[in-house]
Amino acid sequence: MGAIRHEDPDPVAGGRVLVVSTGTVRPLPWHGRTVASGIAKTPVRGPVEVTRLGLAGDEQGDREHHGGPDKAVLVHPGEHYREWARQLGDLTAPAFGENLTTEGVLEDDVVLGAVYAVGTTVLEVTQPRRPCFKLAAHHGVEDMAVRTQRTGRTGFYCRVLRPGLLAAGDRLEPLFRPRHGITAAEVHRVLNVDRADRAAARFLLEHPEALPTAWVGLLRKRLDGHVDDQAPRLHGSPPANP
Questions:
Q1: At what angle do helices 213-223 and 198-205 cross, to 10 degrees?
Q2: Around Cβ 178, how many Cβ atoms within 10 Å?
Q3: Is the predicted pLDDT of residue 62 greater than 80, yes or no?
Q4: CA distance 176 to 10
Q5: Phi/psi at 150 (nearest 5 deg)?
Q6: Residue 26 pairs with which residues in a beta bridge?
Q7: CB-based contacts of 217, cutoff 8 Å, min separation 6
Q8: What is the pTM (predicted TM-score) of this model?
Q9: Is 226 helix (H, G, I), strand (E, B) or coil?
Q10: What backbone phi and psi angles, to 5 degrees, belong to 148?
Q11: How far is CA 117 from CA 20, 90, 113, 136, 171, in A?
């Protein structure tokens, strides 16, 4: 890519990668059953190769809801660790299954569609993470997914626009920031928390290009009076109307 360009005249500054992590799929106990998950990751030393599908050596246990080009890299702000320490005690990254633990780039700053150079890679922010019950299973805290959703400390996903190498210590240099200004925090709020905010849902639907296709459909159904069931995602329970 060439010189840094911004659509927004007052772009948010970039950040820095603190920890780079990968993990393989392992069995994760949950309420008397076992689910496959790659949430238990470990830090990697030195540069890591990043392809269109994510970091080399990283795996996902549920490819329907995790991984793929639009969720190739999971970013989690390191600032959240200080907040969680008040409730859970000290945690060591990557306690939330993230690939990149960062500083200086928070959900209420990051705009969907924003592009960052990291090392020799180029990443595009695609969506906030939707917390699921595997966070609870991983931490041994029954309501961990619910807490994460309520606080908005979710992290966010990126697609890989240019494969390359990245490492701890690399800067997240902003290359492009869409003018629509829709942040990961706002999408999370409307999609997962304030689900009756019809005006905000309508605003998001004015920019469908900024949202995952499935979320566009979900918001349209809500405006038609069909509210989705969050229990399967948050608690690992079966849908109310299978």
A1: 140
A2: 18
A3: no
A4: 11
A5: -65, -40
A6: 37
A7: none
A8: 0.92
A9: coil
A10: -60, -45
A11: 15, 30, 13, 32, 8
Residue 125 to residue 12: CA distance in whole angstroms = 14
- Between 11 and 203, the more confident residue is 203
- Beta strands per DSSP E along the chain: 15-22, 26-30, 33-37, 42-43, 48-51, 54-55, 73-77, 100-103, 115-118, 121-128, 156-162, 164-166, 171-176
Condensed to tens digits (0 to 9), the pLDDT of residues 63-121 reads: 666 679 999 999 999 999 999 999 999 999 999 999 999 999 999 999 999 999 999 99
Buried b (16+ CB within 10 A) or exposed e, 47-83: ebebeebbbeebbbbeeeebbeeebbbbbbbbebbee
pLDDT in tens, 148-199: 999 999 999 999 999 999 999 999 999 999 999 999 999 999 999 999 999 9
Q: Which structure tokens are listed for 164?
A: 């390359």
**Number of neighbouring beta carbons within 10 Å of residue 24:** 13
